[in-house]
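Trying the structure run again after the queue cleared.
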Amino acid sequence: MDTWKILVIGASGYIGGSVLTALMKSSHPLLRECEFTALVRHEPHADALRHKGINVLMFSGLDDLDIVREVAARHDIVINTASTFHTPVAKSIIDGLGDRKTAAEKQTHLIQTSGTGSLADRPVSKRFVETKVFSDKDNIYDYEKYRESIEPFPQRTTDVTVIEHGESTGVKTYIVMSPTIYGLGSGVINQKSMQIEALIRAARDDKYVSVVGSGESEWSHVHIEDLGLLYELLVTRILGGLDLPSNKHGIYFSETGYETWRAVSEHIARTGKELGILPSQEIRQITLEEGSVKLIQSMGPDIIELGWASRSRTKADRSREIGWKPTKSFGDFLDSFTTLWAEIMKE
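Done. Tokens:
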């Protein structure tokens, strides 16, 4: 049988680097026989990946759509962990996989990274309130179409496009829709996530911890290592020819617990005080506009509300049904705050 060719886009990032590490270190015999390639845009990142024995191809960035399509057409599986907001690149990947499917007469597959921010509500602005706990066995595609009809959101737009364009081209697609991701990554470039880290960096600078709005809304969470296990499981099931729901039925959640945003800020305040970094466990409520300055300056109030104030509760029922077995506990979640404080203080 021909060697399976797997392309990872976003291998220098937090998720992509950790997923690639999980696949490369896996003891699964089918993965041992695969050829892995990373598509990157920065030469220093390429050198670091080559040093780990990974094939590297260069491109100018996600807007280099012709190259993306051309490279995707040389692979059987593409794992896209780059920007979840970039709909055109996801479409170009599928076009390339469709080209390969036609030329090689072989089924091709896209594993697309997304986030549960696509399901999140807007409790601060009151533009949309959601109380549901979603299962990945629900009809998430129809729900995303409904939410898009109310308010287009780039990540959700990409999800819908991946599903629909995959079906129209005959490419099997799988969307890994993750909640808050915690823990240090295992990639060679970026080992830190975004949501909790942004709150800690702001606390480091302000000497108090912020919470956006009331902080009463809940988000699910998952450790980056458990997330890597889910990607590994999806790939090995594809390689083994095992049943794996795809396209409209191919949305997979990853979660091992949940917490309110106020509780997250309390964990940051407690560990920051214990480490002697913060003078007290003070928590201050901030507005969406203040959050867009303190947390991620390139994002406006709309994204701050979705990422740091909204509700997004999920259950990974389908993922567990196909064999996902996460290993991290709530204790690991709590321990991660001390580790993350220490890492951020090194910056």
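The longest strand covers residues 109-115. Worth checking whether this holds up in the mutant runs.
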